[in-house]
Amino acid sequence: MTAQDPLMEFTGSSVNGLNEAPPLFLESAPVLSSDDNVRHEGLDRLVRKFDPADRDDRNRALGLSGEETILLFERKRLTDAGMPELAGKIRWVSQEDGDGAGYDIRSFDFSGYERLLEVKTTRGYQKTPFYLSRNELEFSEERPDAFRIVRLYDFARVPRAFELSPPLNKVVRIRPESYKASFA
Question: Nearest Cα to 28, choosing from 50, 12, 6?
C-alpha cells in the first residue's frame, strides 16, 4: 500500500472466527472533484425506507470484516518483506482497546515507523461517501505522518482498496452531518 506496490493481491485466513479475508487489490485513490454535483447513478436509487438498527448492525459487521482484511493484509505485507517480528507487533487497536483511539490498526512501514490505519469499508463503488468521526479527523491532524485512511470498496465482490493521507481536506470533501445538542 505504498508507492512501490500500488497493485497487490492478498488472500489471508481468519482471525477471531470471522470469514476468511478475500483477495484485495490496491489501487490509486480517486481524485477530488471540483464539481459539488457529481453523483454516482446508484446513489440516486437508494431505498428511502430502512430499519436504522438493522442498517447499523450490518455496517458494524461490514466494518469489522474490513478491519480484519486489512489486519491480515498488513501482517502478510511485513512477513513477505522478511519482517515477521514487526508483523507480530501489529495491533487491532479498535478490538483490543475499544473504538476511541482515532484509528483501527497499528501497523508499520518497512522502516519500522508506525502506520495508524483507519479502515472504511463499503460494498459500494470507489467514490461511495463514508463517515469520519470528529475524533478520527482530529487524530489525522495530530499525526499526519502516520495516520492513513484505508478505503475498502466493492467489498462483497472483488475487494479493492486505496489509501488517503492527511491533510484529508485536500483529498476528500468534508462536511458536518450531525451535531450534538446539550443544555449546558
Answer: 6
- In CATH, the number for domain 25-29+53-170 is 3.40.1350
* AA letter at 146: A
| 69 burial level (CB within 10 Å; 0-12, 13-18, 19+) | buried
Mean pLDDT per 10-residue interval, the chain, length 184 residues: 39 44 77 67 54 83 94 95 97 95 98 98 94 96 98 93 97 90 88
Q: Where are the domains of the chain?
A: 25-29+53-170
Structure pTM? Answer: 0.78
Per-residue CA distances from 145 to 57, 70, 115 (Å)? 33, 19, 8
